[in-house]
Design brief:
Layout lengths: L23 H20 L32 H28 L5 H15 L9 H13 L9 H5 L23 H14 L3 H26 L4 H13 L1 H8 L5 H13 L5 H14 L4 H10 L4 H22 L1 H7 L12 H8 L5 H26 L19 H19 L9 H7 L7 H15 L12 H40 L1
Helix pairs in contact: 1-2, 2-19, 3-7, 3-8, 4-6, 4-7, 6-7, 6-11, 7-8, 7-10, 9-19, 10-11, 10-18, 11-12, 11-13, 12-17, 13-14, 15-16, 16-17, 16-20, 17-18, 19-20
């Protein structure tokens, strides 16, 4: 009888964790538990963390939650504390899996990918939580359906003078802010309105699908990019779809970052075979959100030794950008620039801005903050370029002697560095922005940046659990504010300090090795 040897990538049972802190079953169990917990909090219906979407009018579409007629709901403290707990448990589970992966855990990557797909779907079937941005997406689409320009008129200008079944359910403070999104995102908002009609509930469902599908495609594209390397595919599944930080920050809140990042990352994946397609996709990504430009810079840097391909990418990217911002929505680019003027209470700049405004005007204080942020971005990016290695991706052509000259591998590392350094230093950053760094990080070389991003995203997620402009139970507003403007700020500063320390120690080791 012939003995069949098991394939190496199926030998996950050979991994023996040294403690529960590196046990994959513990980590995965915590992530699944935290995801189900998030879905459970939402399933109880509108609360301090779960949005109100208005009447369902008999619709059988998700998001699903318990009918209000049942008289079951979560109190403010219960809902908020449970949400904090789910975020913390999920993050700890992810940390355990990172340790297990580094220690030699080798699961069947495809099973992990399917697990992530299931988790993503679960949180897309219940009501979005904490961030009311998805309602504003619905409102901007509604304005367009009504024949209004969301870049020129605000939601508040309409619903304060006339009743509208969709606009009525929006929340402050963005009711008086024109859209800051690109034409591609605006088009998705119109489509959701066409599909959902005059029901905020149904429109939000379609917006959730426009988040879920891109998130799944991001994971699948990255998984295919890592084909031939089971260890890298495991990392991809973990970072893109199983990642509780992204499940909470992006999918559970239905943010449109997923749509923009999907096009941008698909552009990187297309680099090897179709430079023209890479350019076209990055142009479309820029039409979704202007900050996708860093992915474009990463692609151009990857092609810096191949001027013909570089020119093809630049030319094909310019076509959709000219159509979107030159012909279709010229005002969108100026509107998006407003995002550069905000200062986030959970970022390092929050307390600094507050201090500066005691001695000078808001405008001068913002100028100083932005100058400091740009300088910090350059410095941190320079450090990370020395600290984060270029991982040679599978499928490098045989004629490339030095794998570090592979344009796709270089573009991935460049995107990681540019986005991570920008997110860490910008005065206005939210947890869902981190998808821009987590996505290329999934196929990048493992480093301390993995755990630093997990720490950063987790604290930003906790910071805005009570970020809605609604009344909370006594004491909860103060508690949430201290987590946001004190604990989270300290956590963000510690990330900066950790990178500087990491860089200094790395340079010392290099000097010692050279002198030795």
């Amino acid at each position: 009888m012939t003995r069949i040897e098991p394939r190496p990538w199926k030998r996950s049972h050979l991994y023996e964790p040294s403690s529960w802190r590196s046990h994959p079953r513990v980590g995965l169990g915590m992530i699944i538990g935290s995801t189900l917990g998030i879905a459970g909090v939402s399933f109880f219906g509108p609360s301090a963390v779960t949005l109100k979407l208005g009447p369902r009018n008999g619709s059988l579409l998700p998001p699903w939650y318990l009918p209000s007629t049942w008289g079951i709901s979560l109190g403010d403290w219960v809902a908020v504390v449970l949400t904090y707990l789910c975020i913390a448990v999920g993050a700890f589970g992810m940390w355990i899996l990172l340790r297990a992966l580094a220690a030699g855990w080798r699961p069947v990557a495809k099973k992990l990918l399917y697990t992530g797909i299931g988790l993503q779907i679960v949180v897309s079937l219940v009501t979005p939580l904490t961030s009311a941005d998805v309602e504003m997406y619905a409102a901007y689409g509604r304005l367009q359906v009504l024949g209004r320009d969301p870049y020129e008129i605000t939601v508040g200008e309409i619903f304060r003078t006339q009743y509208d079944a969709v606009l009525y359910w929006t929340e402050r403070p963005w009711q008086d802010t024109p859209s800051v999104y690109g034409p591609v995102v605006s088009a998705s908002q119109v489509l959701a309105n066409r599909l959902g009609g005059a029901s905020m509930h149904d429109i939000v469902f379609w917006l959730q699908m426009f988040c879920l599908i891109p998130m799944l495609l991001i994971g699948i594209i990255a998984y295919r990019l890592a084909a031939g390397n089971p260890v890298l595919q495991t990392r991809v599944a973990l970072f893109t779809l199983v990642n509780p930080a992204m499940i909470w920050a992006v999918t559970a809140q239905a943010h449109n970052e997923a749509l923009a990042v999907m096009f941008a990352f698909a552009a990187i994946a297309a680099m090897r075979r179709w430079p023209w397609l890479a350019g076209l996709l990055i142009g479309i990504a820029g039409g979704a959100k202007v900050n996708m430009v860093l992915f474009g810079i990463a692609i151009l840097w990857g092609y810096r030794r191949e001027p013909r391909k570089l020119a093809v990418v630049a030319a094909t990217a310019a076509v959709p950008l000219l159509i979107f911002y030159g012909l279709w929505q010229p005002s969108a680019l100026l509107s998006a620039a407003r995002n550069t003027t905000y200062v986030n209470a959970g970022a390092w700049a929050g307390p600094v801005f507050g201090l500066l405004t005691k001695f000078m005007s808001w405008n001068i204080a913002k100028i100083i903050i932005n100058i400091v942020a740009i300088v910090g971005w350059v410095v941190i990016a320079g450090m990370l370029f020395r600290l984060v290695e270029t991982r040679p991706l599978p499928g490098i052509d045989d004629h490339i002697v030095d794998p570090m000259k592979d344009p796709t591998s270089v573009a991935v590392r460049t995107a990681v560095v540019l986005y991570a350094s920008w997110l860490i230093t910008t005065p206005n950053s939210f947890s869902w922005y981190d998808l821009m760094a987590w996505t290329p990080l999934a196929v990048a070389a493992a480093s301390r940046l993995d755990s630093l991003m997990l720490w950063r995203t987790t604290w930003l997620s906790a910071a805005f659990v009570t970020g809605r402009a609604i009344p909370y139970a006594r004491g909860l507003t103060t508690t949430g504010a201290r987590i946001r403007d004190t604990a989270c700020v300290i956590a963000q500063v510690l990330v900066l300090v950790a990178i500087v320390v990491w860089y200094v120690r790395s340079r010392r080791q290099t000097v010692r090795a050279t002198s030795g």
